[in-house]
Amino acid sequence: MRGEWLVTFAAVVEARSFTGAAKRLHRTQSAISMQIQQLEAAAGVPLLIRERAGVTPTEAGERLLPHARRTTEALLDAAAIFNSAEPASGPLRIGIPEEYSGSELPQLLSHFQRSQPNIELLVQSASSDRLTTAIEDDALDLALLVADDNEQRHGEVLLYDPTWWVVADNIVLPTSGPLPLVLFDQACWWRQWALNQVNETGREWRIAYTSDSIAGVAAAIQAGLGIGVLGKSTIPKGTRSVTKELGLPNLPGSQLILQRKNPNAPGAQDMAALMKRHFST
After folding, report:
1. Does 248 lie in the same domain as 184?
2. 186: left (phi over 0), alpha (psi -120 to 50) or beta
3. What are the residues facing 157 on neighbouring strands?
4. Are 29 and 141 within one domain?
5. Counting runs of H as helices and runs of E as strands, what totals does the chain give?
6. Disulfide: which of 6, 8, 174, 212 matches 71 by Cβ 3.0-4.6 Å?
7. Which residue spans within 198-264 are E strands per DSSP?
8. Structural domain for 127, as ranges
9. CB 3 within 8 A of CB 25
10. How far is Cα 211 from Cα 185, in angstroms, rounded to an integer?
11. How far is CA 4 from CA 73, 120, 128, 207, in A?
12. Residue at a domain's end among 80, 103, 126
């Protein structure tokens, strides 16, 4: 199997779409489709499931994915050898929104650390409000921040992330009676949005689970405790969108923003470029 096929396969899985992979790899969508076809022909089995909600790997694809990611990382590491004659050194302080701490972003940071071992990565994972405060207090050199459609944050928009109503795949929601809701705690703006939208439908509801973290909400939805709202890019496996199924109004989306405080910090420009390539739409 050719290395470029594996790189393309990993990009499609991580972007959950051919279009997203094409943008990430700076290729046309037809080129991405052709390489996946060639990879599946070489493998002799389907590797991807194409659904309305996004592209996911088959069982064979899941077995191949770790190898594809290692191939991608090896190629990036090899390219990094020629990027700089004098490697930077020192601490680089990065902020990551909690909702992205469980995605493929940690792998991106791992690649950066291996390619620039003299840079000490200091990563803070927290809410965007806390990260904004840290940026303002000069406690971070750069950060990714999440802002809703009506919120203004300074920085460079890398990604627009629609918000979906999601539920566990194996759960059949009641057609009558109170709708079980999995919500964030009082401090999160998604909570009131969700309640307002359900109220617009006139449907009765009850709060089945509350958490102050993305991980807690996602785990409760996966466990089948009820319906909740998550950004499309952070929806876990084993869940599906039910926005149209239940006739619920669309929720406002959010933007992923790159904000730089100290662009001259060791490795800051390289890290920003890496994040832009990874997330840029």
Report:
1. yes
2. alpha
3. 257
4. no
5. 9, 11
6. 6
7. 205-211, 227-231, 239-241, 251-260
8. 90-160+255-279
9. no
10. 6
11. 12, 31, 35, 47
12. 80
Instruction: Enumerate long-range contacts of 37-41, CB under 8 Å, 24 or more apart.
Output: 38/2, 38/5, 39/1, 39/5, 39/6, 39/8, 39/9
Beta-carbon contacts of 44 under 8 Å, excluding residues fewer than 6 positions away, are: none
The 10 Å Cβ neighbour count of residue 158 is: 19
Q: Strand pairing partners for 127?
A: none
Tell me how far apart the alpha carbons of residues 126 and 164 are, in angstroms, rounded to a whole number: 22
CATH of residue 215's domain is 3.40.190.10
Q: What distances in angstroms separate CA 237 from CA 80, 136, 145, 184, 218, one per listed residue?
A: 32, 35, 24, 19, 10
Residues 263 and 186 in one domain: no
Residues 7 and 57 in one domain: yes
The predicted pLDDT at position 41 comes to 92
Please report the pLDDT score of residue 87 as a whole number: 65
The half-sphere exposure of 66 on its side-chain side, counting CA atoms within 13 A, is 2
Residues sharing a CB contact under 8 Å with residue 109, sequence separation 6 or more, in sequence order = 94, 121, 123
> pLDDT at position 248, please?
80
Q: Is 190 domain-assigned?
A: yes
| Residue 227 pLDDT | 92
Q: Which of 80, 111, 130 is the last residue of a domain?
A: 80
Check: CB of residue 229 under 8 Å from CB of residue 254: no
Q: What is the predicted pLDDT for the residue at 42?
A: 92
> Same structural domain for residues 136 and 247?
no
| Ranges in the chain, pLDDT < 50 | 85, 281
Specify if 85 maps to a domain: no
